[in-house]
Structure formats: structure tokens, C-alpha cells
Amino acid sequence: MTATTVSICNQAISWLGGNRIISLDDETVEARLCKANYDQLLDVVLEAKAWTFAVVRFKPAQLSETPEYGFSAAFAIPTDILTILQVSGGSVSADGTGPGLARKSAGNGEEQRILWQREGQTIVCDEQTIYCRGIKRIVDASKFSPGFVQALAARIAREIALPLSQSQTLEDKMVKKYNDALADGGTFDGLQGRSNKVISNALTRVR
Predict the structure, then answer these.
(1) Under DSSP, is residue 10 helix (H, G, I), strand (E, B) or coil?
(2) Taking the chain, what is the end-to-end CA distance rounded to the nearest angstrom?
(3) pTM for the complete prediction?
């Protein structure tokens, strides 16, 4: 079954014993709580793991203004990118497979990375061209993985448990449910694309 915003919220509500909603605009306590929290919690759960459905590769634009000190270049992070996972330089690999790869001659998939830092909505480094992997804000619920759906529903349930039920015990149960769902969903999601062992050469990643 394809997930929707409403179905995810109804999953959360069902764990709390509340009344199901038809729309986030319903005139009910459940709908108002879900509407007030959904967008923010969506970003929170997206940032919690490197969910494969949300991982994208992109080439950020270099800014004309350079950092005041420390690095020679700055690049703008697109507004729909929540988290930067990896930054590679713009050099072409020895085997000609493309920019930003610079694979070692052993051919084991190891990527040579660069010294960089995230500062606000910019990446600063000493490269003139960079390529990145990051977590993109995905709002179309039909693209969510099953594990992510469960984690997001549990996170919503955790947030609205106390105002909806006035039960600290129930909120505590939802905290555990979220932690379990996040661990399970992240584990299964992380099994994809792991045929080769990839070793990082990253010198630093500061956010």
C-alpha cells in the first residue's frame, strides 16, 4: 500500500488510541496536532539516517564571495538539501570514470575526499569544483521506504502523545517505538548497495 501523509498520521494516531482523520484540515485535535508537527518532523527523520530514497548526488554552484579566511572557495547548498554526506573534488579519476571519483589503482571503489566544512548553507573548501552526496527533502510520501514510514509515524506519535492523551507513560512508549523503528528501518535500508567495501579518506566533516 502506498503511503500518504494522512495514512502516516493515522498510523501514529492509532498507536495512541485516537480518532482517525480524513484530512490534516479536519476540525479535530488529532488533525491539528498532526498538521502542526508533520513538516518539521519529516525533516527530523530524514536527517536521522542516510535513507537511500532521499540520497542524491549534485554539483553545487560556487559563490563569487570567498571565505574571509581559512578556505579559498565557498559553494551554495541547495535549499532542498538537508544534510551533506560527502564532498569530493573535481578531478577526473585515472580510469576516466568521471568527476569527483579519483579511484585508487586497486579499483576497490575507494574515493579520495577533500578537506571541507559546512557553514550554514554553504560548503567551504580549497577546490574550484566539487561534487556532493546529500539527503534531499522528499515530501512525496509515495516515495518513502516502508521503514521510513514506520519511523516517521512513530516520531509523530512521540510528539503528539502527551498533548493528545495526557499520558506520560504513553509518551515514553512512543519514544521507545521511535528508537526501535529508526534502528530497524535504518538497518534494512542500509543493506542496499553494499556489495563493495568503501573506505573513506575524509579528513574532516564539520557541520
Answers:
(1) helix
(2) 37
(3) 0.81
pLDDT number for residue 1: 76
Do residues 51 and 148 lie in contact, with contact meaning Cβ atoms separated by under 8 Å? yes
User: How far apart (Å, rounded) are the C-alpha atoms in residues 165 and 154?
Assistant: 15
Contacts of 100 (CB under 8 A, 6+ apart): 88, 89, 90, 91, 111, 130, 131
Q: Measured between alpha carbons, how far is 117 from 12 in angstroms, rounded to an integer?
A: 37
Structural domain includes residue 200: no
Across-strand partners of 116? 125
Do the Cβ atoms of 111 and 101 come closer than 8 Å?
Answer: yes
Interatomic CA distance for residues 124 and 63, integer angstroms: 10
On whether residue 204 sits in a domain, the answer given is: no
CA angle 207, 146, 42 (to 5 degrees): 40
Residue 193 binned pLDDT confidence (cut-offs 50, 70, 90): low
Convert the pLDDT of each residue in 78-115 to its tens digit.
999 999 999 988 655 555 555 544 443 334 444 566 89
Please report whether residue 205 resides in a domain.
Answer: no
Domain count across the chain: 2
The number of angstroms, rounded, from the C-alpha of 168 to the middle of its chain's C-alpha atoms is: 29
Task: Give the distance, in angstroms, between the CA of residue 90 and the centroid of all CA atoms in the same chain.
Answer: 24
Cell (9 digits) for 166: 495526557
- Grid coordinates of 172: 515514553
Domain encompassing residue 75: 54-136
Distance (Å, whole) CA 121 – CA 158: 29
